[in-house]
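Input chain follows. Return structure tokens only.
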Amino acid sequence: MLIAIFTILLLSLIASYIYYASSSIAKSGSFQYKREQAIILARSYTEYAVMAIEGNDRTVNCTNEIKADIGNPDSGQGYRVKVLISYIGNQKYISSCSNYIAQLNDTDPDTLSAIIDVYVMYKDPQHPDINNTNTPWQSYHKRSIQKI
């Protein structure tokens, strides 16, 4: 009888440990999934920013910022993306750009580069108070310098 009780207790302890381990693995898996999606979105929006820069006439209309919501980021089921663009180059190419790092002189007339900062923010969907406005955002940042 004692051996049966001891065996049942031992099996219940092992089962509770397996349940705890599987739930923590599932939670870390969802965190990893959200982060990987943020990395992919940052890469995609970097390429989108380059296309937006090349599609505009920088002497007339300069692209300085891109914002987007993918899904419903406030409920934890999506992402919020913010792209900030700064320019480095000859003044005649970026004359209408208010967001520039440096304007080079005319010795190198064809040099134009952009510093692209992409911020991808998301909330933890398993947070107990996800609909609260004070729920913390997780953020992924990618900076790249692109020659235009």
